[in-house]
Design a protein that fits this description.
The protein is an alpha+beta fold. 48% of the residues lie in helices and 13% in strands. The strands form five sheets. It has a five-stranded mixed sheet, sandwiched between helices. GO terms for molecular function: heme binding; iron ion binding; oxidoreductase activity, acting on paired donors, with incorporation or reduction of molecular oxygen; steroid hydroxylase activity.
């Protein structure tokens, strides 16, 4: 399966058609917010320009795809991992590879994600004016010790926020519980929808977009929000598509539709949280377990902190309550759909039997497919450590994450020996690294081909004559795979996402006989003459086609 290497290219995502205009215009304005910086000595190579100071911006604004294609080509031909461009008067560096990305991912580094996270936060959880000002005023960083020179600032909201993410979302105990609550709901839903032995047709993306989304949201948020707002998933789906047009697009009066969609969703969350908290008995809330009103410990602790120590407005708290669902929904759900679709349609005939074998080996004895109450499914550590399953997951993220890691230089610094002036922007567009031929291409399998085998290393044969394979993600060079970013803001949902993606693939492979019917257009009916390509995106692009499969639940 060969992908068009530049499907991803609209910089912060493969954003097409009308949205492209909004995105490009927005990026231009976004860049204009910043000061002019330059340094002609010992600078990294610069992308050639016909009109000094202007042509990169014009080129990018009129054809971002061609612009970034040219940037990547230049970087490859000059064998450089850093390139200088200028957007809207701002000095921007495009980087990839270990040497150039490490400074971005180092804690306490001079590279900060603060402004970027602030903008996303503003858009996604719509804090009140007062809370927004408090968040913006906290420039003390996320480490226990404040950034030097900011010791006088006492209102340290970000360090507390960071603590909640690392304690209740990333830590294995809570991640594993979240995954268990998700799979309990998801497998029960499947058992209800797919009777034993009755072949049923299903569209993978459509199905997961509805049911995976809802089951994960219930695991995180509780059931209460779904009773209060039966249209929650629809509202979430619309709000999700509004994030980039709001973050990067023109103001509300020129761009009302995405703002309305985002506001509708925030209103649902706010109404729910205000009502739910009125009668909520904190003393009776489980310490570590799930409860129907506020769901998981992560959400409960977030709300508890917002109300008490954080002293945030209920509107801000409600936004925080709902906001991770757009991370989950925009990223894990399409990543799961791509993983399953890739596994089922990959021309490498070794792939599917090996995936099935590994999934079956990790099934727990009491999780027989004929049970209507599935309970626990897999020995998760064994499943997540299986080489072919990991390789398929890693290869899918390599090809389908379209995000750009964005950092600002908070002080003068260096990257790979090059001086970077305070105020410059450094971007590591994930696809630039993930599609890099020097890092990923091997003879017969270019970087833009889905080929999980590239992540497997052979260490001879086993006693029963099978190849001994281990999973390794380094490619030909280190620092070219970072779908979850890095450093203090590295995605805290990554361990949950990995369980969700690999677990769902393994679940379909072990519980069903699957037969591919074919690719269809978004209407779900008309056959497509091609496989899916990358469509709309936040961090992981959505498929622009769906895969129809016929599945029969096994006894
Ligand atoms: C395949 C799935 C996912 C991908 C590819 C992904 C990717 C990313 C990336 C690239 C970042 C920015 C990292 C940086 O700046 O260095 C990020 C941040 C974040 N992600 Fe994810 N993500 C995924 C799933 C999730 C899930 C399931 C959740 C939670 C439910 C989540 C919650 C977050 C949060 C809260 C942040 C901001 C972290 C902070 O402010 O420190 N993500 N994610």
């Amino acid at each position: 399966m060969v992908f068009d290497a530049f499907e991803w290219v609209a910089f912060l995502g493969g954003w097409y058609n009308a949205r492209t205009a909004i995105l490009i215009g927005g990026l231009f304005l976004f860049s204009l917010r910043f000061m002019f910086h330059g340094n002609k000595y010992n600078q990294p190579p610069k992308l050639a320009e016909t009109i000094p100071f202007l042509s990169h911006t014009i080129e990018f604004a009129t054809n971002p795809e061609a612009f970034l294609k040219r940037a990547l080509k230049t970087m490859q031909s000059l064998n450089t991992d850093i390139l200088r461009i200028r957007l809207g008067g701002r000095q921007v560096y495009l980087v990839m590879g270990e040497t150039m990305t490490n400074p971005l991912f180092r804690p306490n580094s001079r590279m900060t994600a603060r402004r970027f996270i602030e903008i996303l936060t503003e858009v996604m959880f719509g804090p009140t004016k007062k809370d927004r000002a408090r968040l913006a005023a906290d420039i003390t960083g996320r480490a226990r010790e404040p950034v030097p020179g900011t010791e006088h600032i006492e209102d340290r909201l970000w360090v507390k926020w960071h603590h909640l993410l690392s304690e209740y979302l990333s830590r294995p105990k809570y991640t594993n519980d979240l995954a268990r609550w998700f799979f309990d709901r998801f497998t029960t839903r499947i058992a209800e929808l797919f009777p034993l032995e009755k072949p049923t047709e299903m569209l993978i993306w459509e199905f997961l977009h509805q049911h995976q989304t809802e089951c994960a949201a219930r695991a995180f948020l509780g059931d209460g929000i779904f009773e209060a707002a039966p249209d929650y998933i629809d509202a979430l789906a619309e709000a999700e598509l509004a994030i980039i047009p709001i973050a990067l697009g023109p103001p509300r009066w020129l761009n009302p539709k995405p703002h309305r969609a985002r506001d509708r969703w925030l209103d649902i969350n706010r109404r729910y949280i205000s009502n739910a908290l009125r009668g909520y008995n904190w003393a009776a809330a489980p310490t570590d377990g799930w409860d129907p009103v506020l769901g998981s410990p992560y959400i409960r602790e977030l709300v508890r902190w917002g109300l008490n120590a954080g002293d945030l407005d209920i509107q801000t708290i409600a936004g925080m309550y709902g906001q991770h669902m757009s991370n989950q929904n925009s990223n894990s759900v399409p990543a799961t759909a791509w993983t399953i679709m890739n596994a089922l349609t990959c021309p490498d005939s070794d792939l599917l039997p090996n995936l099935r074998r590994e999934a079956e080996a990790a099934l727990l004895p009491d999780s027989h497919p004929s049970k209507s109450d599935p309970g626990s499914l897999f020995d998760m550590p064994a499943l997540l450590g299986s080489p072919w399953l990991q390789a398929t997951y890693a290869e899918t993220l390599r090809l389908r994450v379209t995000f750009s890691i964005v950092r600002d230089a908070s002080r003068d610094t260096t990257i790979g020996g090059f001086p970077i002036k305070r105020g410059a922007m450094v971007q590591a567009p994930i696809p630039l690294a993930h599609f890099n031929e020097a890092a990923w291409g091997v003879p017969g399998h270019p970087a833009d081909e889905f080929w999980p085998r590239r992540h497997l290393q052979s260490s001879g044969m086993t006693a029963d004559g099978k190849e001994n394979l281990t999973f390794a993600i380094s490619g030909q060079r280190a620092g070219y795979w970072f779908p979850y970013g890095g450093g203090p803001t590295m995605c805290p949902g990554r361990n949950f996402a990995k369980q969700e993606i690999i677990g769902t693939l393994a679940f379909f492979l072990t519980w069903f006989d699957l037969e591919v019917v074919g690719w269809v257009l978004p209407d779900g009916k008309t056959p497509s003459d091609r496989e899916a390509r990358s469509g709309e995106t936040f961090a992981v692009c959505r498929p622009d086609r769906d895969l129809k499969v016929r599945l029969t639940r096994k006894r």
